[in-house]
Amino acid sequence: MAENIHVLLAEDDPSLGTLLTEYLELKGYEVTLCADGDVAAQRIQEGVELFDIAILDVMMPRLDGFAVAEKLRACSDMPMIFLTARSDKDDKINGFKIGADDYVTKPFSMEELLCRIQALMRRASQVVQQVENSFAFGHFEFIVAEQSLHSPSGPKSLSTRESEIMHMLCANKGKVVPRTGILQTLWGDDSYFNSRSLDVFMSRLRKHLKSDDTVKIVSVHGKGYRLVETN
Questions:
Q1: Is the same domain home to 138 and 49?
Q2: Contact in structure between 72 and 95 (CB atoms under 8 Å)
């Protein structure tokens, strides 16, 4: 699973950073440890294509994790996990708005973080394997392998989680996709926090589609969502 997977790890706590690096390397991952946000941003600028997944501490000197995430999302849609000591729901929602795929609150077990990494990489791999899959609706074309939404104004890169949700909606166009099914499939449970995260991603997808009035993601009360095309 970990073969050739390169992790960008931004963590300003030297003890935790070293511990995480050693643990992940023991599990077969290659890790680049950055001691602050500035160093992480520099590594992204030098070669974001070298990395497969980013793990970012939120509270870091110089540039915090949110700022680093914005720089990362401007050039890559790789899976991204936030590490934080904060438990405030608004902070977590803001993280997902920036484009995070997961959020781990300190303290956490190494095994939990590893499972979350593996889940994100497995989903990303499944998307890449579906090279031929594309879906046309309205003036859009969603290309699964590229995790991109194409329209007359040009292509729009989607995050891994956005792409996963869009794929579920497109594969069932016109049908109701149960909300609990999305949560169980992509997050692993339908807790309140995960449910709020899904709301954020749905809002982002609706913004991506707003340029075509004939296409909508409709909320079906008490059930889920349906991608509809009126023409």
A1: no
A2: no
Report pLDDT digits (tens) over 165-197.
Answer: 999 999 888 888 889 889 888 888 778 888 899
Prediction pTM value:
0.60
The domain that holds 12 is classified in CATH as 3.40.50.2300
pLDDT in tens, 13-23: 999 999 999 99
Number of domains in the chain: 2
Q: Is residue 1 part of a domain?
A: no
**Range 106-110 contact pairs with CB under 8 angstroms and sequence separation of 24 or more:** 108/83, 110/19, 110/20, 110/23
- Quick one: average pLDDT of 185-212? 90
Residue 64 per-residue DSSP state: -
Q: Which residues, at least 6 apart from 6, have a Cβ–Cβ distance to it below 8 Å?
A: 29, 30, 31, 32, 50, 51, 52, 53
Domain that holds residue 193: 130-229
Q: Are residues 123 and 136 in the same domain?
A: no
CB 126 within 8 A of CB 86: no
Locus of tokens 């995430």: 69
